[in-house]
Each structure stands twice: as structure tokens, then as C-alpha cells.
Amino acid sequence: MNKNFIRTLAATAAFLASASTLAFKDGTAGSTSEGELNINLIVEKQISIAGFDKDLTLDSGNSYTDSENVCVGRFATDSYSVSFSGANANAGVQEFRLSDGAATPTYVIYEVRFDDDTDAADVTAVDATTGVSAGPYITTNNLNCTGAGGAGDTDNAQIQVSVSAAEINAAGNSGVSSFSDVLTVTVTAL
Q1: Cβ atoms within 10 Å, residue 44
Q2: pLDDT-wise least confident of 48-62, 66-80, 92-106, 136-150
Q3: 3-state class percentages of the chain: helix first, strand second, coil last, to nearest 5
């Protein structure tokens, strides 16, 4: 059995060596000589997200809901996935929590939604335990977010955050008036 394994391994190595020699052809000596080689181009997928230009403020003036329009740009792909994580996350339990910053913090749960355009008509709730938004999503913007064809509005996605009435009541009853979090948004080229 050991001899058969070694013979199989040797035959496989010989085949692979001969296959790699088919990738190019050396020329022969003469008054001219011609050779051939294969050229392979590998273009890496790239994705970018830009346009974060404000802090989101949740208060009674906006019904405890705010949003940010952003641009997702791409190169060598047209689809992407998106995930979110909060700095105050309780990983695997609750990804999105505002904190009062105390040594023993009080938390307020918030919701995150994502829309792969800026009309907010088809916004999708982000899974609060994993931070993953349903997808894949499509973008036509170039990597630098200058829009399709280099012109036009570059914002092509929207992130929404909100706090429910029950969480607002709990926050009000806690005696604390200010809560915050840092939300990290990750886009991945597919």
C-alpha cells in the first residue's frame, strides 16, 4: 500500500510538472526565434464606504430616530454585505446599546436599520444579536464614490438608528439623561 501511494504521488507530481510546461513555449535557435507565454490578470475586489459627516442625535425633536446617508463604492464587484457592531455590545446577546458611561453603566437598547438606497422605503432591520444585515446589496458607484459614470449623487445607502418608546421610558426612569455609543459599519465585497 505504501508503494502504491508513493507511485500515485510521483505520477501526480509528473503530471503537474508537465502541465505547467504547457503554459509557455520556448523558441528554437535560428535566424529568428519565437516563444510563447500565458498572461493572467487577477483583479482584487475592493469596497469602500464614505460620507460619515455627522453625529446621530436621538431626541424628542426627531422622534428618537436619525439617519445618515453614505456612499458604498466598489471595484471589480457589484455586490456587498454589511454588518454593524456597537462599542457597548454584549456580543451575541445585544449588539446595539447606548451607555451612560458610568462605572456600572445603564444601557439603552437601540435599533439599526439599513437601506441600499437613500429613500428609506425598503429599509431592513439589522439583526440585533449578530449585527448582520440581510443582503447581498448592489452598488454601481465607483470605488472613490463619485457616482456611476463619475457624475450625480454619490450617496447610495442609508443607516438609520432609533430607540423604542419602552427604552425611552426606561432611560427616563433611570435618572440619566445622556447615553452614547460608537457604531462601526463594515462593508464586505462579495
Answers
A1: 8
A2: 136-150
A3: 20, 30, 50
- Pair (65, 142) in one structural domain: yes
**Contacts of residue 32, Cβ cutoff 8 Å, sequence gap at least 6:** none
pTM above 0.85, yes or no: no
Q: Which amino acid is at 84?
A: F
Distances (CA, A) of 55 to 23, 66, 126, 131, 159: 56, 9, 20, 20, 12
pLDDT on residue 82: 96
Instruction: Answer yes or no: is 42 within a domain.
Output: no
Looking at the fold, whether 94 and 18 belong to one and the same domain comes out as no
* Average pLDDT score over the chain: 86
What is the number of alpha carbons within 13 Å of residue 148 lying toward its C-beta?
Answer: 5
In this structure, the answer to whether residues 12 and 62 fall within a common structural domain is: no
Q: What is the DSSP letter of 38?
A: -
The beta strand positions in the chain, using DSSP E, are 24-25, 36-37, 46-50, 65-75, 79-86, 97-99, 107-109, 111-115, 124-125, 137-138, 157-162, 183-189
